[in-house]
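User: I want to check something. If I give you two sequences, will you return the structure for each one separately, not as a complex?

Assistant: Yes, each is folded on its own. Here is the first sequence with its structure:
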Amino acid sequence: MSKHDENFSGGPQFRLGIDLGGTKTEVVVLDDNFQPVYRKRVATPSHNYGEILDLITDLVDDAKKSLQARPTVGIGTPGAISPVSGFQRNSNTTCMNGEAFKTDIERRLKSEVKIENDANCFTLSEALTGAGKGYSVVFGVILGTGTGGGIVVNQKLLSGPNAIAGEWGHNPLPWKTEADGSTICYCGKEGCIETFISGSSLARNFEKRNAVILSSEEIVHGASNGEKNCELAMELYFDQLARALAHVINILDPDAIVLGGGMSNIEGIYQQIPPRLADYVFSDCVEAPILPALHGDASGVFGAAML
């Protein structure tokens, strides 16, 4: 029996996942125990749809050749596929919007492909084998270039009939104050949660208030060094994030909240947010822990493979 035939003869069942991000794309292949046996990461040609299809095709072909096997394929993408049209929508990699991505990539790969929102993939991974393992209802959050969310209930991903379950970043920031200001989101609405608590939004809003250009990393570092404007920016950021998460808790009341994305590496989040939630949650207690992702920036690609 060749290694190529193992997936069809009761041998190892390889699962290939791709995390299609705005700046990088990662591929991983997991074995039966969800352990990675192949990984690769490359830059994303985020402004050219045809080049994205070429990239994914090449990544899958290279993995198959390396393993000499035919794994199942799952892809985590920004946005989601419309249940009505079958086209990609709501993606901040805007060249994908309006494209028949599932049809196009299945034609390229000549096989079935499971596709889910990247935040859903992140949440699935963390609920099954990560920080949310053992909790019944897990709300997963990506705080990166954008802001996404996903929901897993009893180890099952909840997508919803409209494929938007967990799309928390495109609700308005609750309990807004004058200090928040407002920004038009790429989705066309004003004041979306994403325009306040994503990494790019922290930097953009800091520039609007202070006429100084700093990256989100520089703002966080400046706050830790006692720079006043950076401290004020982070104080506001923590309050905005607390309000946004309280909104979710009031609706879903999850057993655990798991954070991923670059902003989730800010240690202050895990000290600053829990005590602030009491001001906004409609309860006399807030039991759900806020946890950093166990798999780090690999959560999304692991979850895509688990589809």
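And separately, the second sequence with its own structure:
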Amino acid sequence: MVVIIMGCGRVGARLAGILDSEGHKVTLLDIDPYSFRRIPPNYGGDAQVGSGCDVDALEKAGIENVDIFIATTQGDNRNVMAAQIAKHTFNVPRVVCRIYDPIRQEMYRELGIETTSPTKTGAQSLREVIGG
């Protein structure tokens, strides 16, 4: 599988390391080169400075040939915008977007973008921890 991950924070860097170790071709894309310090030492993929909202940066990262685009930055708006560009401009077969706001998550899911909300899953996990 060929993957672009937008956002080299804790989640993006960790996911890139996992997917790379499984043999997938991974490119990390982040606007801040300092973020690449989070990349695991054994990561064999690519890391490029650029925005997932910039068509030129996406093309340079090879978006025309990816199987999945994953937006993991801390900004809901950036993630949604990049996900829509990947889905509608480049026809990426699978696009996943992290959205903190559960209400917006449902709205974008209804528009055809796969979403995940750490806010929602975190609350559910905490509920399980505290029990009945």
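Because they were folded independently, the notes below concern the second chain alone. The chain has a mean pLDDT of 93. The longest strand covers residues 25-30.
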